[in-house]
Write a structure and sequence with these properties.
Radius of gyration: 28 Å
Largest sheet: 5 strands, antiparallel
CATH architecture of the largest domain: 2-Layer Sandwich
Strand content: 35-45%
Distance between the termini: 27 Å
CATH topology of the largest domain: Alpha-Beta Plaits
Number of domains: 2
Strand order of the largest sheet: 2-1-3-10-8
Number of strands: 10
Oligomer: single chain
Shape: elongated
Helix content: 10-25%
C-alpha cells in the first residue's frame, strides 16, 4: 500500500509529496507530531445474490398484452414456489404499458401494445440460483437475466478495512519515530474514507433450453467473486 509521511519538529517542517491518490484534509501541523496516511483493504465472500429479470410481451391489444404478461408472471410465481421461495420475496421495479408503432411510411401505424415489468430477487441460498435461472429460461418468460453478487453486511467489512489501514498508518508512524530517535505517542487526529468495489452486473440473454440440454447451469461449481472494500486513513500522532 502506498503511504505519505510528514514529520513535524519545532521550527522544522518536512513534507514529502503525497503518494496516495487521496488528498489530505486540512490539518494544522503541531510541533513534535507525525502525520501519516495509509490504505487498507478487506475482501469478503458475498452474502447475497441479486437476480434481475424482466417480463416483456407484445400483443395486438392492450388487454391481450396485459393478460399475456399476467400469465407469464404466474409462471414466475410457480418457479419461485417450486424452489421454496414465496413470490412476495421478489420485488417489481416497474410495470409499463406502451403502444408500439411502425414507421415504414410517413404516417405512423399502431401495430400493438407492449407490457413490460422488471423483477428483482435476492437470494441468500446460492444453490437456488442455478435451478431458478434454468427454469426461467425454460419457461421463456424473460428476455434477459442479470446475476450480481453483493455483500449486504457491508459494515463489518468496512470496519476490517479501516483496521487494516490504521495498522499500516500506525506502523509507518512508528517507523519514522524510531528512525528519528523518538517514541510514538497517542493518536491526536484521524480521518477515514471507505470505498466498496463491487462488480457491475453483466446481463445475459435467457433462452429456452431444448430437452437435450441437460448441462449444468452456467454458475454451477464456480465460486462468486469476492467483494473488496478499501479504506483510507489519515492520522496524526504525538511524538515523545
Amino acid at each position: 500500500m502506498k503511504s505519505a509521511l510528514a514529520l513535524v519538529f519545532p521550527l522544522i517542517l518536512l513534507i514529502n509529496p503525497p503518494l496516495s491518490s487521496q488528498e489530505h484534509p486540512a490539518v494544522t501541523a503541531q510541533p513534535n507530531s507525525v502525520y501519516v496516511s495509509a490504505d487498507g483493504k478487506f475482501e469478503s465472500a458475498p452474502d447475497t445474490a441479486v437476480l434481475q429479470f424482466n417480463i416483456s410481451v407484445q400483443e395486438n391489444t392492450a388487454q391481450a398484452a396485459y393478460q399475456h404478461a399476467s400469465k407469464d408472471a404466474e409462471q414466475v410465481r410457480e418457479v419461485l414456489r417450486g424452489n421454496g421461495i414465496e413470490p412476495k420475496a421478489a420485488n417489481i421495479g416497474f410495470l409499463s404499458v406502451q403502444p408500439m408503432y411502425e414507421y415504414k411510411t410517413s404516417k405512423q401505424k399502431l401495430v400493438g401494445y407492449r407490457v413490460s415489468a422488471n423483477v428483482t430477487l435476492k437470494l441468500k441460498d446460492f444453490t437456488k440460483i442455478g435451478p431458478i435461472t434454468q427454469q426461467l429460461a425454460d419457461a421463456n418468460v424473460s428476455e434477459s437475466q442479470t446475476l450480481n453478487y453483493t455483500l449486504e453486511n457491508i459494515d463489518e467489512a468496512k470496519n476490517k478495512a479501516v483496521e487494516d489501514a490504521y495498522r499500516r498508518a500506525h506502523n509507518s508512524a512508528e517507523t519514522i519515530a524510531r528512525a528519528s530517535g523518538r517514541g510514538l505517542g497517542e493518536l491526536s487526529y484521524a480521518s477515514v474514507d471507505t470505498f466498496e468495489n463491487q462488480r457491475a452486473p453483466v446481463p445475459r440473454m435467457a433462452r429456452a433450453m431444448t430437452p437435450m440440454a441437460a448441462a449444468p447451469a452456467p454458475t454451477e461449481e464456480f465460486s462468486p467473486q469476492n467483494v473488496s472494500v478499501t479504506a483510507h486513513v489519515n492520522a496524526l500522532f504525538e511524538l515523545k
